């Protein structure tokens, strides 16, 4: 029996055996035809996963924050007005990155657990004159799911470019870049894509590429310049090789294996499964008389749960759950960091992981004196809902 605890934080996540095997292979040259084919598949399949048949994928070594920086560095020019729809910690990060690249940033939202209404976003768009709008699809600090489709439609009406931080959504939540009018979306390998950390994955639609091509000033950072990477991505996708920076060959092989699994499952089926998983967890939290951080179901993510500690229980719960074999995460949002915990439920999660996790949380809560957790009703509720 494995002594490694079950990893149920919102990224990195448990990875499938096939992905681990791909990762463990010896090094291939980045000029090797086998690597070229793997990279080509990764790029082509990224379009499917992002719902972006007209998009240009970029896959480079780095974490999700690098993908955010790549978006800002290429699309922002000094003085551009940007509107950040803030649903948590990562909206704040996006605002700071945009500012670093010269944007004048207005924020809307920022209410813990809530997503701005359409009227609020509409008013903020009008008053800010924003030409760039950013949305965090799922803010991992709050577990809030933003209505990307509705926000994007509003932004598009005003001709603004729409950037989506999909680090905690792509591969687990429904995202249709082309259909919804999203101009750029980004993620990282370690969450719902089901690969190890280390890759920034970004897809830029035609309007984003146009904005980059029409820049009056050079991109202010060498490593993330679309101009340096575009020839590399185009070459690999079309069966040639090109060099700018050494690609992380093992990570690309791992992502190739995980994207194969995503595509085999089918994005619709996969998103449905994530909804079912979230529903099972939500049923357990309700049965245990716990309150979730998102203020209602329509803004609750399907890739993670953010749950308040009940009366008399504190952040020591996380370590107690670990003693029962499951790793969960504490809070992250500065306004409530010590008041809630988070459980990631992405990737290949199914009933065994759900029951193990709920069981561990339930036992740890019971040991902390929370009486609603004494009867095994969380596990029963999760199983029934599933
Ligand atoms: N955006 C969101 C929504 C995230 O959840 C994260 C990571 N938790 C990031 C951006 C930053 O990604 P990374 O930690 O890989 O830099």
Descriptive notes:
- The protein is an alpha/beta fold.
- The protein folds into two domains: 6-11 and 266-385, Alpha-Beta Complex (Aspartate Aminotransferase, domain 1), CATH 3.90.1150.10; 17-265, Aspartate Aminotransferase, domain 2 (3-Layer(aba) Sandwich).
- The chain contains 14 helices and 14 strands.
- It has helices spanning 17-24, 33-50, 64-75, 89-100, 118-128, 148-157, 177-180, 206-213, 226-237, 249-265, 267-287, 316-323, 351-367, 377-385; strands at 6-7, 56-61, 81-86, 104-109, 132-136, 138-139, 144-145, 161-165, 184-188, 199-204, 304-308, 326-327, 329-330, 340-344.
- It has a seven-stranded mixed β-sheet with strand order 2-10-9-8-5-3-4, with helices on both faces.
- Strand 3 (81-86), helix 4 (89-100) and strand 4 (104-109) form a beta-alpha-beta unit.
- The protein is globular and about 65 Å long.
- It starts with 5 loop residues before the first strand and ends with a helix.
- Bound molecules: 4'-deoxy-4'-aminopyridoxal-5'-phosphate.
- Residues 11, 63-65, 90, 136, 139-140, 165, 167-168, 188 line the site of 4'-deoxy-4'-aminopyridoxal-5'-phosphate.
